[in-house]
Amino acid sequence: MTDTAPRPTLEAVAARAGVSRATVSRVVNGGDGVRQALVERVQQAVEELGYVPNQAARSLVTKRHDAVAVIVAEPESRVFADPFFARQLRGISKELTAHDNQLVLLLTEGRGDHARVGRYLAGGHVDGALVFSLHLDDPLPELIQRAGIPTVFGGRPGWSGGRDGVVYVDSDNRGGARDAVRHLLGLGRTRIAHITGPLDQTSAADRLDGYRDVMVDADPRLVEEGDFTARTGERAMRALLARCPDLDGVFAANDLTAAGALRALREHGRRVPDDVAVVGFDDMPPIAEQTEPALTTVRQDIEEMGRLMARLLLRGLDHAPSGVILPTTLVRRDSA
Amino acid sequence: MTDTAPRPTLEAVAARAGVSRATVSRVVNGGDGVRQALVERVQQAVEELGYVPNQAARSLVTKRHDAVAVIVAEPESRVFADPFFARQLRGISKELTAHDNQLVLLLTEGRGDHARVGRYLAGGHVDGALVFSLHLDDPLPELIQRAGIPTVFGGRPGWSGGRDGVVYVDSDNRGGARDAVRHLLGLGRTRIAHITGPLDQTSAADRLDGYRDVMVDADPRLVEEGDFTARTGERAMRALLARCPDLDGVFAANDLTAAGALRALREHGRRVPDDVAVVGFDDMPPIAEQTEPALTTVRQDIEEMGRLMARLLLRGLDHAPSGVILPTTLVRRDSA
DNA sequence: ATGAAAGCGCTAACAG
DNA sequence: CTGTTAGCGCTTTCAT
User: Fold this and answer.
1) Where in the numbering of this chain does the HTH lacI-type domain appear (chains A, B) (predicted)?
2) Given CB 3.0 to 4.6 Å as the disulfide criterion, which of A237, B194, B262, B265 pairs with A264?
3) In Å, what is the separation between the CA of B10 and the C1' of C6?
4) Residue B290: its chain A contacts at CB < 8 A?
5) What does the pLDDT read at residue B269?
6) Are B165 and B313 within one domain?
7) Which residues of B touch A122 (CB under 8 A)?
8) Within 7 Å: CB of A11 and strand D?
């Protein structure tokens, strides 16, 4: 790696402005309590020299880093197929940027990477962590707790029952699912199937619970487990069709799954929504608007989730509510 | 943000092991030239105290950060619709992780963010930068050059002609495009249309060039500009169909565009591949395998691109080749 | 309101 | 091989 040209230090600026380092430091950090004349002189010197504070030196004394780790622990498949991840990142990035914080991205490939993440967190490089996509049996939270660093989880962690001090942001998965199923019911459908997500994630489990809230004693054969991918959605739909040819409605755990289901339905000559009405979850425009027919779905504001997670973390977790649940809304298009 | 418990310092470890700070430092950093007995004593002290080096203090003296900035300058639309971004990130992350480097993600929302990025880069927080998705008129490279920090670009920068010392990694877009069109020709198609990407990006321009290489004097009306999104691919296909109803082949600049084209084709009652053969570009499995019919497309190894970019940067740019072009391969499925 | 001085925790000569 | 000694560039009392 080529060396960077030596950058001017506080010292240099002080010399040029004819003041002490302390004064320059004050000006650079807001400049209260410094005479206006001096402030200007310093600012000019900063300008002329192109001075930029050395973050390492600053962190060394302040013990702050103005950096937040974002940890994504997710099997490849989903992260790549689904714009979900990118959207959350964007929200987080916006909020962090607005507060002059940097985003350090930690992608994990599996258990092997956990030690590394733990070490990094314990290393005190960042002021906090934002963690996604935890599965029920994930050891990551344990590590993170041990690192003793402020953390906000994206999505309700499966193990949080009882654990205190766990802060998370989630969508109203259960309520959204209820809305979806009720909408189907309102359309006169009675044989409503559900293709779930991976049930070791709370978002998927909660949506299933919502489905069951409304379909109190539904035929258990109407529920098929999926994993949030289109491929599996298609396969699940085929299984459902074979098992319950009389079904007239489907609530898919996310839009990708719904897209897969739509394919299977078309393949089997079922018209949507005439024969079978379909509702998705997420409202990812590039997916929901592109399906044939366009998808009726439950919208969650993913970017806002990201933004909120960052905001909570930056504000300080001491007075933060444990869980924040964001509302969802049903978006009607053509599939139901 | 809650404070982290005060962590033990080198000093503390030294005291406990009964050696000097220098010795501890040596052990922590590889430990060559230290008697085995001492090494073990120090390691045990480290263990017992749970010592982790303070990165800020270390950077302050070494002037290295073991961190790389990844800058993504891309209008929302594409980053979110396309798994492209996530894949490259994964490749980069893997390589960086393997070399104990951190990934600092900088997402820009537009011109307004450029100053911030420039400041960050100039701030000397990172040892290098990886930059994506530059458009022809993008001022970002300028800023980056000024920051004087080692940089590798993802995709051939549009302005690199003449500029020396620009290092980039790209796919063989032009060659891949030629393969795609030749394949269509080999199928006996003669009226082959092309839906381009945004032509201010070299990847799109190069693919168009590749198309023209083969279709030397093609009817110019067979070319329609797109922007790498499905929606636009659909619209472009409609326009093409209206203008040249006799077309029998389409080369779409990427898979998403091809997916959109497929929709338009279906809507117009054209059978694929019988009436119109379609070839895409990228080979994004979640897209290419899910279209109806499955997409014949030009594969590029996106994750490898990311990995290679990181590798070049970490190895040091001084002896790096200016441009590295990765090969592409045609993947036959059902659409052509 | 401003300056002097003391470190933050670490590495890197330099001695020994 | 190991210890001593200087800082790296910045913030922050404490005087003035």
Assistant:
1) 8-62
2) A237
3) 20
4) 230-231, 259-260, 263
5) 96
6) yes
7) 50, 52
8) yes
Interface A-B, measured as beta-carbon pairs within 8 A, has a size of: 157
Same domain, A191 and A273: yes
Residues B178 and B235 both lie in one domain: yes
Q: Is the pTM of this model over 0.85?
A: yes
Domain of A85: which CATH number? 3.40.50.2300
Nearest to A280 by CA among A293, A267, A266: A293
Range of the domain at B114: 67-171+302-326
Q: To the nearest whole percent, how much of chain A has pLDDT over 90?
A: 67
Say if residue A309 is in the same domain as residue A218.
no
CB contact under 8 A, B286 and A123: no
Query: Residue B42's domain is classified under what CATH number?
Result: 1.10.260.40
So what's the pLDDT on residue B81? 61
Give one word for A282, left, alpha or beta, with left for phi > 0 and alpha for psi -120 to 50.
left
- Of residues B149 and B335, the one with the higher pLDDT is B335
pLDDT of residue A33: 83
> Is B249 strand, coil or helix?
strand
State how far the alpha carbon of A241 is from the alpha carbons of A177, A193, A248, A276, in Å. Answer: 21, 10, 10, 11
Name the more confident of B115 and B259: B259
Question: CB count, 10 Å around CB of B201?
Answer: 26
Question: In angstroms, rounded to a whole number, what is the distance separating the alpha carbons of residues B278 and B177?
Answer: 13
Tell me the per-residue pLDDT of A94-104, one tens digit each, with 9 for 90 and over: 999 999 899 99
Cβ–Cβ < 8 Å for A237, A265: yes
Measured to protein CB atoms, the chain D nucleotides within 7 Å are: 1-5, 7-13
A39 within a domain of the structure (yes/no):
yes
Number of domains in chain B: 3
pLDDT digits 0-9 by tens, B109-148: 877 788 888 888 887 889 999 998 677 777 888 788 778 8
The verdict on a CB contact (< 8 Å) between B316 and A2 is yes
Residues B147 and B186 in one domain: no
B28 touches chain A (CB under 8 A): no
Whether residues A122 and A177 share a domain: the answer is no
* Cβ contact B179:B211 at 8 Å: no
In a domain, B3, yes or no: no
Q: Average pLDDT, whole number, for chain B?
A: 90
Average pLDDT (B266-287) is 94
- The reply to whether B90 and B167 lie within a common domain is yes
For residue B73, list its beta bridge partners: B108
Q: SS3 of B35, please?
A: coil
Q: Is the pLDDT of residue A6 over 90?
A: no
Spanning CA of B169 to C1' of C10, the rounded length in angstroms is 37
| pLDDT score of A79 more than 90 | no
Asked if A260 and A248 sit in the same domain, the reply is yes
Residue B211 within a domain: yes
B240: in domain: yes
